[in-house]
Amino acid sequence: MPICPKGHQSDDPVDCDICGGSMTGGTPAPPAVAEPEWDCPNGHPGQIGRFCEVDGYDSHLPADAPDQVRAAAPRRWVATVGADREFYDLTCADDDSLVFPTRLVPRRFTLRGEALLIGRKDPELGIHPEIDLTGPPEDRAVGREHAALVAQDDGTWAVVDRGSANGTHVNDRVRPIPPKKPVPLRSGDQVFVGAWTVITINAE
What we know:
Elements lengths: L36 E4 L3 E5 L18 H4 L6 E7 L1 H7 L15 E4 L4 E5 L11 E2 L12 E7 L5 E5 L6 E3 L12 E3 L4 E4 L3 E7 L1
Parallel strand pairs: 5-6
Antiparallel strand pairs: 1-2, 3-4, 3-12, 5-7, 7-8, 8-10, 9-11, 11-12
């Protein structure tokens, strides 16, 4: 009968029946330890591993971390383009040349990269906005290079008016934002451009 390096007799020629050690003198591998479950504070119980599988929350963050640090970054940001009647009425009260669209199917754009141009394409000028508002229907009050959505270091986005003729509004249909200055966006914020276009920003 084989004898392990510690002097135990074993029927198993590979691992000692008594101590579990290698019959050739190696150190036995420690038994696998199952990772404990934990409950994500954002309402997702039964997680295993460091990060929540639902929202990416980091379980290694200290308990006293500020809310903005503890909040999980969303998996993606989306811009949904639609038409806003109230903004149109305020903008075009004395202008009948721009007609409010009676039927418009909302369009969704997933935000990716460092920056996305908002505008209307013009192949002759080499302008190809990532968020192209050419239509149909076309909001002719939107500039060719009207504004831009710019990625921030914390995973959120900001909007920058590029010096447009008609301005860019954030959650305020009356007062436009200053040109060429980034304005941080939160999920649910609305960006108004042109005569009737509204772009709703959401984290999903």
